[in-house]
């Protein structure tokens, strides 16, 4: 009887340890998510800036004032959206930014 | 009220000039050297008397080591182990730069965009060269996304290239903006403390809370900078 009790106690303690471990892991993940959310805004803007710079540079080079600026600004915007989409997808979010189940 | 931007001013300590290029020793360079020195002294002293049961400082340096080692293992795999010294140096340099900047009367060198941009540009070029060196022409397959129909490729490749080129900018702006905005905000609230008289207790409480937040951001931004470097390094080592 005593032996059984001891065994049961051991099992219980092991389970408790496992539980706290899982909880800790969850906490860690939340912390990582926080870091990833902070970068989303910059992710969008930086691609637009790159598009802008390339457009202005090409316009200066070919003397074709607004054409390349328009093209690369739109491409930069698309790239920015894609940057955001990718970093959101890495967190396990789906298209509508809802967490996947 | 005190000028909140004043704290970011670069002051020359030892003016130097070489071929009309200003290479003066400034307070920014002083804190960079200080950051390196603090890291080195901390690591050397903490593992000087190695024990099987570590004391507090040895535990701290071991945790730091394992933290970066795990980050590399999780993000890059065993191929990334060669880059451990690089990633570790990068992380500790930025971390201690941010944390030293939290001390009163000190200077935060990461709050200048030219410093973070130089770091990010160096990483960007380094990673691109490693990719080309390891994979040759195949490296440019990175710009061709998987599962895209041929018709869409002329549109997708420029987008991918712009997205790739935007990395150093997003990397540097993130660190710089977070550090500068936080320090400016602290200073502005501190300025309110005196001008509001007895009611200055309210901004003082906010400032205390913001200081705690700033320490969190200092650590978090160093972490984000390093983990993004790991992710980019992973892409150029393992390709897709």
Structure description:
The complex is a heterodimer of chains A (101) and B (240). Chain A folds into 2 domains: 1-33; 39-101. Chain A is rod-shaped. By secondary structure, chain A is mostly helical. In chain A, helix 2 (40-62) runs antiparallel to helix 3. Chain A has helices spanning 2-38, 40-62, 65-90. Chain B is mainly alpha-helical and 240 residues long. Chain B has one domain (6-238). Chain B has helices spanning 27-46, 56-75, 84-100, 113-135, 153-195, 201-238; strands at 12-14, 17-18, 21-22, 25-26. In chain B, the strands form 2 sheets. A two-stranded antiparallel sheet of chain B has the order 1-4. A two-stranded antiparallel ribbon of chain B has the order 2-3. In chain B, a hairpin with a 2-residue loop joins strand 2 and strand 3. In chain B, helix 1 packs across helix 3 and helix 2 packs across helix 3 (84-100). The chains are: A mainly alpha (101), B mainly alpha (240). The A-B interface holds A 34-35, 38-39, 42-43, 45-47, 49-51, 54, 72, 75-76, 78-80, 82-83 and B 158-160, 162-163, 165-167, 169-170, 173-174, 177-178, 220, 223-224, 227-228.
The largest sheet of chain B has its strands arranged as: 1-4
| Order of SSEs of chain B | EEEEHHHHHH
The assembly state of the depicted protein chains is: heterodimer
What structural class do the secondary elements of chain B suggest? mainly alpha
- How many E-type strands of chain A? 0
Helix content of chain B: 55-70%
- What's the N-to-C terminus distance of chain A? 44 Å
The total domain count of chain A is 2
Strand % of chain B is under 5%
Report the average pLDDT across residues of chain B. Answer: 87
Specify the structural class of chain A: mainly alpha
Largest sheet of chain B: 2 strands, antiparallel
Shape of chain B: globular
